[in-house]
Design brief:
Length: 350
């Protein structure tokens, strides 16, 4: 039997108006397209209570006590990785009548504790947090114009079939294994293209394809042939070079050549803090790589050569407005790092 629908306050008001106009209950039911019993009980309830509202219902009694609800909440907060079945099993070990996993999950939702996929982030040691905090405090007073003088640089590896994000398709029930409804994947990503890139002052610099393993000598060559020319072309002679503290970036060869060939003793060069991975969220070029990857995936690269061609095409299509937006968020990034005491912060809110 279908569940009966409760009459709204507007419908009950209409019943009273029509009844006062001398309509019969059957005429009211037909006119409002509701059952006769609905009209009858609505009028009866109004006569008894003097109100159009439903009577308060006691509802089904809660099967857990306040102390047990608190136990569920505290247990979940102490160990965020406990699942609903694990919490239910722990609670039922002290109860005569067991509660279901669904009940435990409802209690967690009442406390605002929702099950979500944990976001992956590199492990931050205390030393990393201190360096991040120190960097943020040193640069929190930089203006947007100061950040526009920075040439943001880094390397990134794009894989031919290396898409990690979920892909949605629209298919019928029996088309699950249809070729056009599958996401192709091959071992080791089907090959990759390693690139070095840079941007600054709302414009992209060189995009260089790295072949083989990039060592300190190769990075030395990139600084000479791509980083310095890109910085001078985009920003000017007094641009500030940004690079992470990857060993090949911080070798004695690379900073020396930069200081000798470009920077004055007063201007110097500026490097991001922490190890290269742990402080990736402080480098806006990481967001640029993600945007570039999304643009390339729309073209479905078939091999390494095709992937490189699509990367060059997408690199030239990056809008200045998007690049300026990445630069403009840096003061907020500094404040967020300070608020997090050197830890990670919610990048979606910056």
């Amino acid at each position: 039997m279908a569940r009966k629908r409760e009459l709204s306050s507007e419908t009950r008001q209409s019943i009273l108006v029509l009844r006062n106009e001398r309509y019969s209950m059957r005429e009211i039911a037909k006119k409002l397209k509701i059952s006769y019993n609905g009209v009858y009980y609505s009028l009866q309830r109004t006569a008894q209570t003097g109100s159009k509202q439903s009577r308060k219902r006691s509802g089904r009694p809660c099967c857990t006590t306040k102390q047990e609800d608190k136990y569920i909440r505290v247990s979940s907060l102490r160990n965020r990785r406990l699942t609903g079945p694990q919490l239910a099993s722990s609670l039922n070990s002290t109860r005569k009548t067991p509660v279901s996993t669904s009940t435990v999950k409802r209690r967690l939702l009442d406390f605002g504790l929702q099950g979500r996929v944990a976001k992956k982030k590199p492990y931050l040691r205390l030393a990393n947090k201190r360096k991040r905090l120190r960097w943020a405090k040193e640069h929190r007073h930089w203006t947007e114009e100061d950040w526009k003088k920075v040439l943001w640089t880094n390397e990134y590896k794009f894989e031919v079939f290396g898409l990690q994000r979920r892909t949605f398709v629209r298919r019928r029930t029996n088309e699950k294994m249809l070729e056009e409804c599958l996401t192709p994947s091959v071992k080791h990503g089907g090959g990759n293209v390693m690139v070095w890139g840079s941007f600054g002052a709302g414009k992209v610099g060189d995009l260089f394809r790295v072949k083989g393993i990039l060592n300190k000598e190769g990075y030395h060559s990139i600084l000479q042939r791509h980083a310095i020319p890109s910085g001078q072309r985009l920003i000017g002679a007094n641009f500030v070079l940004q690079q992470d503290s990857d060993p090949k970036h911080t070798s004695k060869v690379c900073p020396e050549i930069v200081l000798q060939e470009l920077f004055t003793a007063e201007a110097g060069s500026w490097y991001s803090i922490g190890n290269g991975v742990a402080s990736a969220d402080l480098n806006p070029i990481e967001l640029l790589w993600e945007q570039l990857d999304r643009m390339v995936r729309q073209k479905c690269p078939s091999n390494q050569s095709n992937l490189w061609e699509l990367l060059l095409e997408a690199w030239g299509a990056i809008s200045p407005a998007y690049l300026n937006k990445l630069t403009a968020r840096m003061p907020k990034v500094c404040n967020a790092v300070i608020a997090a005491n050197g830890g990670f912060f919610d990048e979606s809110k910056v």
